[in-house]
Design a protein that fits this description.
The complex is a heterodimer of chains A (70) and B (716). Chain A has 70 residues and is mainly alpha-helical. Helix content of chain A is 64%, strand content 0%. Chain A is built from five helices and no strands. The longest helix of chain A is centred in the middle third of the chain and has 14 residues. Chain A is globular, with a radius of gyration of 12 Å. Chain A starts with a helix and ends with a helix. Chain B has a domain of 86 residues. Helix content of chain B is 57%, strand content 15%. Chain B is built from 18 helices and 19 strands. In chain B, a hairpin with a 2-residue loop joins strand 14 and strand 15. Chain B is elongated, with a radius of gyration of 50 Å. Classes of the chains: A mainly alpha (70), B alpha+beta (716). Chains A and B meet through helix 1, helix 2, helix 4 and helix 5 of A and helix 8 and helix 15 of B.
Chain lengths: 70, 716
Amino acid sequence: MRPDDILKEILSDPELESLLQIDRDSIQTARMDVPSADPNIEVIKSVIRGGYNGLSPQQTFNEIKAIKKI
Amino acid sequence: MGTLIKSIAFQNFYNYFGTLKDNTFTFTSGINIISADNNMGKSKFYNGILWILKDQVYDSDLKMIQSAGASFIKMASSKAKSMGEPFTMAVMIEYSNGQRVYEVSKSVRFNKSGDKWEVSGQTVDIVETSHGSTTPIYDTSQQTRIIEEIIPTQLREYALLQGESMEKIVDLSSKDGLQKTIETLADIGDIVKIKTNCLTLSRLARSLYNDQQASNTQRSNRSKELLDEKATLDDRINNHEVQLENLNNDLSIAKETKERYEALIENASSRESYRSAIREVDAEIQRLKETKQLKEAAITAKLYSDRPWLLIGHGDSISTFVAKRDELVTARALKMAQKKVLEDPSTILLPEGSPDVPSLRRMLKLERCEVCGRPAPKGTEPWLSIQRLIERPKENAPKTANDFSRFFSDIQISAGGVECDNNKLLESVASYRDEIRAINEAIDKKREELADVQARFINVGGNTNDESKDKSNLSEFQLANRNIEKYTAEIARIKEAIGRWKTRIEQIDAELNANSTDSSIQRYQDFRDLVLCVERLVDSAKERIFDRILDELRKDANEKYKDLLKGNPVEGGTLTFDKQSDGTVHVSIKNAENGELTGLGTGFQRMKQLSIIMAIISTKVGDNRFDYPFISDAPFSEFGDNFIKNFFRIAPNVFTQSIIMVKDLYDVDAPSNMNPLGEEIYNRMKRGEIPGTFYINYIEERSDVTSLVTKTKKYI
């Protein structure tokens, strides 16, 4: 599966909105190669990219920490 | 995506003696049949493919897969070895992926050293052809990728199979079997990797939060106590999660074992009832045979005991004999008398009705002839004549014994009895014969019944030696059941404990955070929860894709199953795919009432497996089609003609290309080496109704099994 398909599948979760409070617009326009205004979508994309590109979980963790400014 | 095998060639490989050119099979899309009898190179052909794809071969002596390297000497043509000269053994597969054509070959060189053969290391040669130019591929990782492309590893279990080991290959309950295959079909390998990463990310986020919490918390004794407790609980949770993972694996294995033995156990009770039915019918046949023997003995006794049975039906001859005998006796007496008179003229011949001696004495006494009524005074000529009659010489009866008279009389006596009893005897024999006929019919009926029970017995996996096997299967099944109970209880206990510890951690968090001096802890907590959420989202995305593929498989496999069963009088039920809580998939056959259909024979079980294989091979996911060759050695063992015909009807729609090694179409005595079913399939191929090729292997010279040389005829 291509990363965009995985992203689409994850964002099609019926519970997504209630779990992460992501607005519908951001969900519909989300693409791997286009930065999203929603940091949570960026976190999801970072997790997908990390797995897809074979990054170590620690590298991905640092990346999502940076996105969430932790 | 997908590949098409264009040709496979062998050089001095098992029975395939000679060069690659001598032993080349060219293939097309559709069904490619290699029809051959036993020992004519079917499994050897299959082994050639195994060598290229997996560096393995199936050793039919050991009945197991062996590494090719350990089997080179066995794999080499005996005829090539018998010539004593150095030679090369090789297999080559030529395939296309739609853009490029590859020739993949593996070879080894044999050199004789004294009495022994020295085998060189294996050489892998790959040549790529693209747009008319050829390029040799030397890079080993590229070579591996090209070989992998022929049939991807995850699909080999299904695309490359041997009929006899189908049950093992299509391990439908195995966690690493169907589940992994569905993951491959759905191409969710990456999402599974992402999911695994998420587990670590969650742990890292939790750990980060805990550290932050510890550093922000007021240094009171109470806080220290709570942090220590939380750390202990976290450790416990981590340890128990590992335990949980292990237990889930153990549970899967126990379930697999149970599944495997459950089918055998179900059949074991059926087999036991069939065994006893076979014994009963056998005993009944034996009893009928004994009764028949008694009836036959009774007929013999009737015919032989004091009855000249040879005379039966000769009643008329007896009266003819009596008349002829009287005639003979009269004629004989007359002839004797005439002879006497001629010899002695004084011989007195008394006419019929002449007086007897007492009458003559009375006439002398009364001096009167009672014949003529005239007086015959004493001393006169008439009186003296009467006296001479009395005193005439008395001859004894002829000394020649009337043997015939005695003999014929005996026959007459016996035959008379027979003649009297003849009808009765014939009626009696006829009645016995009727009874014997009825017994014969009963025996035939019982034999049919026996054949039916035996067929059912075989259908549930029965053979005469498996009584003790059934017992060991039962104990394995019981053990697996006990393990499932044990692991399930343990998993429930651990889950409950983890839940409890998590609740306690939430309480601790709430208390610690309430006393926290730094409000930033909330951000860490949110971050931890976010990572946890992402983990859940990834997990459910993976499950949704998995379920969609499972649904596709369910639908597709049932279509194939129904197609394969077409024309079969037995209701085959519906295939169901139930996903288990541990991720495994349980496949069963259910009847119309949704009850599990058990007792179906090996043929049906294999059809179930083949339907699933067909569904897996032909499943389309999005734009992807898993378009790889289906290669099978003896897929039809245990199947009847109807199923084989159905397979040939369906297969071209399922597999873009299949290569089938089969003996069910072969007839060694037919000039074409095809049996009627083979002829039928061949004619359908010739008419273009079934696309593909049709090869027949044969042996030109009879020889020892180890020196056989297989030749090939291409019919289509």
